[in-house]
Amino acid sequence: MADTQASPANAIRIRNLYKIFGPRAAQCVDLVKQGMSKAELNATHGHVLGLKDINIDMPGGGIFVIMGLSGSGKSTLIRHINRLIDPTAGEVIVGGEDVVKMNPHDLREFRRHKTAMVFQKFALLPHRNVLDNTVYGLEVRGLPRARQEQTAMRWIERVGLSGFEKSFPNQLSGGMQQRVGLARALANDAPILLMDEAFSALDPLIRMDMQSVLLDLQKEIRKTVVFITHDLDEALRLGDRIAILRDGEVIQQGTAQDIVLKPADDYIASFVKEVNRGRVIQVEAVMRPAADGAHRSALPVPAGTTLDDAARALALAGRDELAVTDASGRPVGILAMADLVTAMVPPGDARKGGAGPAG
Amino acid sequence: MRGGPEVAAPHSVILPHGNFRTGLAVRCDKTRGGRVMDWLTRFPHMNDDTLLLLKKTIDEGFRTFTRAYGDSIEAFFEPLQYFLIQSERFMTGTPWPIILLIVAVISWLASRSWRIVASAVVTLLLIGFFDMWEDTMKTISMIFVCTVLSIVLGLPIGIVMARSDRLQHLVNPILDVMQTMPSFVYLIPVVMLLGIGKVPGLIAVVVYAIPPMIRLTNLGIRQVDRDVLEAADAFGSSGWQKLKNVQMPLALPTIMAGINQTIMMALAMVVIASMIGVQGLGQPVLKAIANQYFTLGVFNGLAIVGIAIIFDRVSQAYGKRLQKHLEVVHG
Ligand SMILES: Nc1ncnc2c1ncn2[C@@H]1O[C@H](COP(=O)(O)OP(=O)(O)O)[C@@H](O)[C@H]1O
Ligand SMILES: [Mg+2]
Fold it and tell me: Which residue of A2, A50, A57, B126 sits 20 to 30 Å from the alpha carbon of B148, by its own alpha carbon?
């Protein structure tokens, strides 16, 4: 199962997507294409520019994070993937098919079988208990009740809610309600999982906990997860790839490391300053090329290890240099403890000395 | 006059009309105040003859319509007649202890409150003790049929109305008229069309009592949380699945409030409808008015109050129970 879902069949490609809110959106789209700004459009035509010329490739089987501040258009963008919102112009291609062109019947089938969604405010059915909420997607698909319940019970257990099947949403805490939301989405067994600020309403500790649940699950299920957040730390922790949105435009996309090491502009740089770099940057990004044969004392560490983990390994081993190894175990680079620590400190803060961000 | 076999003896000695005429006949003295004053004090109304002609034409038109279609319209309402008769036969034919038991069980199922069950039973016992059992059963039967009919008609109208703003703008003023029009006025066309009897009474009551059912169904569905509805959409629900799984269950407490109001309005209207042959507690009230039997009027009036309270408490308690899962207990 893991292999099929990681295939390009579940990749999402968004092309030249525009969304303008207002009664004469179609006429306004040309103005925007000619360069009219969001503020200008609102002032002169009273229309709200939701999304502007979005082009994103989301590979199948990975977690793609869309990050941006409140009002930047994140919810609008994710709702285009299952067409809860119709675009003003552009294409949303999922597994080779343009969602924008589907007729109502095909769209319903697409939503039933290809996507599942988790919402910021949970959006559970208040009159149904946990079990009856979890079966919802399967019920809509018309599966036999026994199968619905069997699948639902498995996911209720998997998200840690065993024993609460008969509870109603209003009897559960926020964290537990969102577990129900997650179980409901996962029970659908759709290859694409859409999560709109799914953890934003939760307390920090519970949020961390839910992030771990998602990451653990993702190792098994390898779905295409589209995850929305306004929290850069969350984005960096979860995202295989990240797109940053501002005023309806993508201003940078790439891996977590790309964004931390090469912020596209000052706006992103100001965010990135505050993040824990040691958890994001990987050893091969800051290593020096290996000089053959030397450094026999270096601790071998596989490429892809974060600076945090590498520092911990060095400290435990009591050494002060590591050798980055490729998949076959051959050393490809060298990193000294001193350089490693320097890389963990944000560039602007280096002169402050003792105030390192370790931990 | 046409009418079914169950036509009530029209001992409806309706209020004497004469007084109105003599009262209004007093006119101002025309010689004082010039033409201008006259023009200002008397509203420059439509020519008397034209107005008379207008009223006559409309009435005549309606009468012609009645003569032409009255019978087929009556045939159309035949099933209602049957429903009414069966329901009344059940209520009056069933031994009173069984009726009491049924009322107690329904009250319990709806409210889960012994207090409400006990007060319902005691009220009915008192009504029976004061020899109003038979009339009360007829009234309850009538209210039951009216409520069922109001729900059957009002629910779909409310649902359709919730889906279209244009329809809402169209229907709302009609409902306003239906609710504010003096209830007596409904009796006129209904009697012209169908004569005196149960069915015309039923129609008059339903027209009067259905607006809250429609309004609150519409309101309840429109108030459904948009986030939950979006979730239903995201999982690929069809329109019917959304209605059945989300909109109706979430609107149900509001719809129950509509049913409650409809019952109350129907109770108010059955007394008036007794003028056109609806049997039950309204008949003695009417008789009491005509003959100035104070005690008879008060007793029957109190019986109506009694069953109104039963209906109200039971349906409200049920509505409250439906709402329990919406209260936030945690988080
Ligand atoms: N239905 C709508 N009508 C008009 N403007 C809207 C609508 N939905 C969203 N917007 C606007 O689009 C922008 C992006 O909104 P949204 O996607 O909800 O942002 P985010 O999820 O990033 O907080 C905001 O400026 C918002 O006001
Ligand atoms: Mg949002």
Answer: B126
Task: Give the number of the ligand closest to the Cα of residue A73.
Answer: 1
A226: Cβ below 6 Å to ligand 1? no
Q: How far is A169 from chain B (nearest CA, A)?
A: 8
Pairwise CA distance, residues A309 & A230, whole Å = 26
Domain locations along chain A: 8-114+190-272, 277-351
Pairing type for strands A321-325 and A331-336 reads antiparallel
Question: What pLDDT is recorded for position B30?
Answer: 52
Instruction: Supply the pLDDT for residue B331.
Output: 47
Interface contact A194-B234, CB threshold 8 A: yes
Residues of A with CB under 8 A from a CB of B: 82, 84, 108-113, 115-117, 119, 121, 123-127, 136-137, 139-141, 168-174, 176-177, 188, 194
Give dist(CA B287, CA A343) in Å, integer. Answer: 99
Name the burial class of residue A59, with classes exposed (0-12), middle (13-18) and buried (19+) by CB atoms within 10 angstroms of its CB. Answer: middle
Tell me the Cα Rg of chain B: 24
**Superfamily the domain A8-114+190-272 falls into:** P-loop containing nucleotide triphosphate hydrolases (3.40.50.300)
Digit-coded pLDDT (tens) for B207-247: 999 999 999 999 999 999 999 999 999 999 999 999 999 99
A136·B245 Cβ contact <8 A = yes
Phi, psi for A198 (deg, rounded to 5)? -60, -30
Distance CA A226, CA A3 (A): 19
Q: Is residue A133 lining ligand 1, measured as CB closer than 6 Å?
A: no
Q: Exposed, middle or buried by CB within 10 Å (0-12, 13-18, 19+), for B187?
A: buried
Assign A67 to helix, strand or coil: strand
Binary contact (A117, B231; C-beta < 8 A) = yes
Write out residues 69-88 of B within 8 Å (CB-CB) of A.
none
**pTM surpassing 0.95?**
no
CB contact (8 A) between residue A126 and residue B235: no
Tokens 């429609």: give the residue: B214
Q: Going by CATH, does the domain composed of A277-351 fall within 3.10.580.10?
A: yes
